[in-house]
Amino acid sequence: MAARNAPESSSSSLIDELGRCCYQRDLPGAIRIMDAMERHGVRADSIMYSELIKCCLARGGVEQGKLVHKHVFSNGYQPTMFLINILINMYVKFDLLDEAWKLFDQMRERNVVSWTTMISAYCNAKLNERALKFLVLMLREGVRPNMFTYSSILRACAGLWNLRQLHCSITKAGLESDVFVRSALIDSYSKMGELQNALSVFNEMVTGDLVVWNSIIGGFAQNSDGDEALNLFKSMKRAGFPSHQATLTSVLRACTGLSLLELGRQVHVHVLKFDQDLILNNALLDMYCKCGSVADANTIFTRMLEKDVISWSTMIAGLAQNGFSQEALRLFESMKLSGMKPNYVTIVGVLFACSHAGLVEDGWYYFRSMKQLFGIDPGREHYGCIIDLLGRAGKLDEAVRLIHGMKSEPDAITWRTLLGACRVHRHVDLAIYAAKRILELDPQDSGTYILLSNIYAKSQKWEDVEEIRRAMKTRGIKKEPGCSWIEVNKQIYAFIIGDNSNPQMDKITKYLNHLIQRLMEVGYFPDTNFVLQDLEGEQGEDSLRYHSEKLAIAFGMMSFSKEKTVRIWKNIRICGDCHVFAKLLAKKENRIIVIRDPIRYHHFQDGICSCGDYW
DNA sequence: CTAGGGTTAG
């Protein structure tokens, strides 16, 4: 308004007026004054232009930003490097990388800020290769990267670049102590799974910094080392840092990985003060689902004001994994009604629910129509669900045909799914075939070697047994011992097959024998006959009688009152005999037993298991 | 004028 009232004002008053408009974030007013300035051939200084650009950014004025750009360069004027950098940054913030690049390309001279702005923009756009190319060009032009450059580029280099080499340059430049660089380094090492390197960067820190702590805790949590993540969290608290959303999210993820429901509940209390944080709520949902407490998850889900596709997907998969397939599918319907668009992961959960409930028709329907309905191409995980579905229905040949016709190459998990179907239908020949495919793709999978060797031993093919042993030896494969854990009085007890170090072991074994005795009265008989029942090969060294999960269950029942759910988790998959044992025990003793293996949950109640005897 | 940390499947 002011500009229109004072069309012939002097150059200095125009600039004063421009300053006022910028300060008040009056973008239309500022642009009008800029027009007037252009007519009068008046220019502002770089600082004033930068204020004007800030105003454009604050108001989302892309077009106005372009006008400013034109004005700055009008009459053949060559703006300062400082000002061009700001213009480049403006285009980056507006997501117009091509415009930013054009400006950058035309610069006569570029400093570290110009380069870093572009590199950071490419990193954010996940154009990692291009970001790295720019780093090389920058070095070639003799511009030295600073801490801003390194903390940006580090996010792009995971997997693409020699991280250690970059780390060396950082150290040489004396930039390692910068907290931004440090957290980026930790993050990059974590993303490449090099936790020891991440930890040594972390340990060199003297000053302490919230984000650096979050980086290292997140690193361990994401690499499924929940123990270390939780230890670090304790140290962080001891060092006096307050819990931040990102910290708690990682801590919850650690609880999820370790199935620590009780600790998860305690963390929940701290989450309450951030009750609007979407990511944190999603992590909480997942924790309750994966720790087998669907009721708690449901409560959280219902109370969440804001839900995104991850919230829905987590809840759908969580219901399905816990055996509530119908509820999962109903929730999927509500999701569609709510207008939320499902993604790749959502459909995995939906198909999982179908296969779990034996809903062959629905499963095929979603699988065949996911592309048209939701624009999602079926991937390995989707195929896996359908293989599972066919396997359950006993259509093993069809499952094999599906695998051979897959658009994405089958991986070890695909073949393991088929192997699971072979176990249920006692199809030994196909099991051997699947096991061989697994070992081609995952030569480190000790369980599959044991399984194959057990199959061969059973049919007295000793030469084949010998061959497997040799292969294991040359490849340095050690059998992973079966191990089960249980939390009693905030203490974690581990039961490892063949390990009797628990001081109460005598009592526990005695009690377990007593339980087995009672079950045998109602028809239980330990089934050692069929090798395929033990997919991961816990048997062999010791009798089935003392499989780690049986000991853990016995210990849990000794320690808890009848109402308390006995929650066990174990490192390898549950064997068929232990599965029968747990089902009968749950009924006979009127208990709820929950066992979590590396891939799924088994809820034993009333003589049945949520997995429907298929895993 | 340029920079760092968190959530879903298998």
TrEMBL record:
Instruction: Tell me any Pfam family this protein matches.
Output: E_motif
Q: Which UniProt keywords apply?
A: Repeat, Transit peptide
InterPro entries for this protein? DYW_dom, E_motif, PPR_At4g14850-like_plant, PPR_rpt, TPR-like_helical_dom_sf
Provide the GO MF annotations for this entry: RNA binding; zinc ion binding
GO BP annotation list: RNA modification
Q: Where are the PPR repeats?
A: 80-110, 111-145, 178-208, 209-243, 277-307, 308-342, 445-479
Protein's UniProt keywords contain Protein transport = no
* Domain DYW residues, every copy: 523-615
Q: Source organism's superkingdom?
A: Eukaryota
Q: Which family does it belong to?
A: Belongs to the PPR family. PCMP-H subfamily.
Q: Which PANTHER family match?
A: PENTATRICOPEPTIDE REPEAT-CONTAINING PROTEIN (PTHR47926), REPEAT-CONTAINING PROTEIN, PUTATIVE-RELATED (PTHR47926:SF420)
* Protein's UniProt name: DYW domain-containing protein
Q: What is the lineage of its organism?
A: Eukaryota, Viridiplantae, Streptophyta, Embryophyta, Tracheophyta
